[in-house]
Amino acid sequence: MKKIYFLKNFGGIIVFLCLSIVTFSQDTYYWVGGIGPAAIGEGTNWNKNLDGTGDARSTPTESDILIFDGSNVGGGSPTTGTVQVTITGTIISQLILQNAANVILSRIGGTTGTITLNGDASDDPDLVVKSGSHLTIDSDLASGNVNIALTSFASGQVDNGCTIRIANTGTHRITSQKANGLVFKTGSTFYSDATPSSGAYPFGSSSQSVQYGVKFEKGANLIVNGNRSPMGNSSTFQTCNMEAGSNYIQRSSNPASTGSWTNLKIFGNIIVENNTAFTADGPFYKIDTLNIKSGSTLTTHTSGNTAVLGDLIVDGTLGAPAASTNVLVIGGSIPQTISGAGSISVPSFTVGNYSNVTLHKTITVGTTVNIVGMLTLGAQGKIEGTANFTSRVNQTPVNFTGNTTAGSYIVTGVAGPTGITGLFIKGDGLAGNTNVVGFSSSNSAINLSKPALTTTVGTIFSFASDTATLVFNTSMGANAIGNAGTKSFQAGTKYAVNMATDAPFGISSEAGNSMTVGTVSINAPITTNYNISFTGGLSLADGAKVTIRPTDTLRISSGTDIQGAPFGMNKYFISSVAGANAGVLRIDNITTMKLFPIGSATNYLPVWLTPSANSDFAVSVFEGITADGTPNGTAFTTDQKAKVVNSVWTINRVNGAGDAEVKLSWPSSLEGSDFMNFTNDKVGIGRYNGSAWEQVIGSGDNTTNMAMATYSEFSPFSVGELGFVLPIGFKEVSGTVKNIGVEIAWTMLNDEKGNRYAVERSEDGNKFVEIGAVQGNTLQSYSMLDNQNMFAKSFYRIRLMKQNGQLNYSNVIMVNKAAGIDITVYPNPASETLIIAGLKEQGRIRIFNAAGQQILQRNTNANSLSVDISALQRGVYFIEIVGKNSVRRTFIKR
Length: 894
Known about the structure:
The protein is mainly β.
């Protein structure tokens, strides 16, 4: 006896009712009718004993259990083989196939024969296909139709290795009146081979079965060779509960108006094969792995989403109709791959927030690429097309309300949110790390990457995103994102570069030549392609040498330590050199000792800086010490190199003030012939101050190749003999208009007896003649009056001749007797020295950077003045000449 419990409301009073159903005693009968064809209703075809020695089924009842046992289907005449059974209307308790039974049910007479299963008093399944058995429904429309109907009291189960098949042109079906009433276990298969000409669905329509009446467990197979959807007739109805890991295999093209195939449906794995053209009639709510075999095509819908939570394997074609807005969403929470030898061309492509997707092939995207989670570009991975690209960073949360049902991948009753596909969703009743993989405004439904844990009503949900990560396992680097649309690598995007490339970072279409990135992991040799600012951590793996192009700066704005120590020739930053430029490594917000693991292309030449107050420093380095501390300056002579390390470290303090300890290290191969024999107490650091090298100071260790000294001003530095003065240089040259002529003055940072200084004048700035000379006397400051100057505008320079015959020239200055009328700043752009000409009276010169910060101030009464700008960073600067009439000019430091 079965009992059914339910509640009923009588005028506001809830009454608990119990309905008992009395069942008859059950008899079990075995098929003994041979391989047929034979009628299911013929009593002599059934016997209580498998060998036919028992009673026949002379009086059928609705409680009977009918068994096909494949070990013997002939009773007293033992027989095996396929049994063909003709069907009339019959009601029984259970139908069982066991021991490799192979049964074909068919209809004769042109009408419908239905086997109704009422179930029994136990919870055991009532339609059972087990032990290697196979059940087939097969008859044409003219012969009639066969239905198997499971009532709300009945259930069914198809075991591993067993199959049910519906074939031919009849309108056959198996229907279930309760959710998950018929279960296909792991390894079992259902074949939907029927090709009826009128509306018929293998598991019934919405009026014949219930939602999810049939369940396919993980590893179970639903194979479609027919022309009618096994999912039912409506977008709001799905007969098959395709659990995660179940397999839906499409082997035939699906004609239009043959049911609802994909619209708002939830699938496990989908396989399209057998040269099939599978056309979606609506959005896919969920697919696990999608595998499109060679020769086959899947065409997505015109709108909505195609959500894939597992791997995407395309050896055939994945495409979309013209003018489609469908979004391919790769939104799982386990690592996913996109691979195959076929073609993928979609309108839009999204990687979900918690998703980790590796692209092993080229995909073509027409409208939008939206990376919210992690995208790895494999060796063959590339994005092409005309789509706009965005790597999303930290979208502000937006809240909405909705309802969940335990086990469901859909949140219902949600109205309002748009643009949420790919974001994460959080709220009561949801599993952690859940992505939004689709949204239907017409159905007010959100599609989830994970099933809800509990049932809730009116829950508040939050939608947001974390930070996108781009991983390059390709030598193309960021160039693998080759779509022709605009690109937006939002500030803070994370990177991992795992293969040697000269394009390690993406550049936004509107960004010019610099980008801000988040945390970056560099695991292979790279060359920079832009000015890059790191807001997160930066780490280098073994073998990861980072070549900074001469025009680039790598800036760690967070001030964090570079990860990957110890550094050395196996991993460091190479300051690449071209002309007067060298690649720069900058670290901001330095308050304690900070390592700059930098060097040349051939040697590791690290710098340690310890400021007394918070400071930002930029460092570059080159081999081959020069007279002016620039990469393309005049090289030291052999004698000069003997006492120094043949390298220059350019250290600029971008922000901050006060002293800072500078510590430098070098390889022995760069030491001069005398220097390599110096004791520790003879080693120190010298600075080029813009006009000349200063005396070497500080301390060092010539065994470990370290030197240190404290400075408050920063520019090029090198290492030499303590107390040694590096080659002479001009500190400043100026020209002042007097009543009796033009006074030329110059200052040397250091001087030597025997030097001769000749003043040369030119009318045009090209041809110079000597107008007088001064003998050096180590006073370091000199002047000469030119009382023969008859020109309104003239040019001057100083020629230095040393005792050994070496010649040096100062910068050229211009003197305009009509000063104040036209103040000139040249050259522009300038790299080392800027000349300000046309000054009229005593005044103050101030230089500001593009941010409005004053970086230099000088008082002068000269008509023309040279200003050292070699220590400035590249960029736009402003000069303000303050006097009776203030004047502003602009120049570019290159």
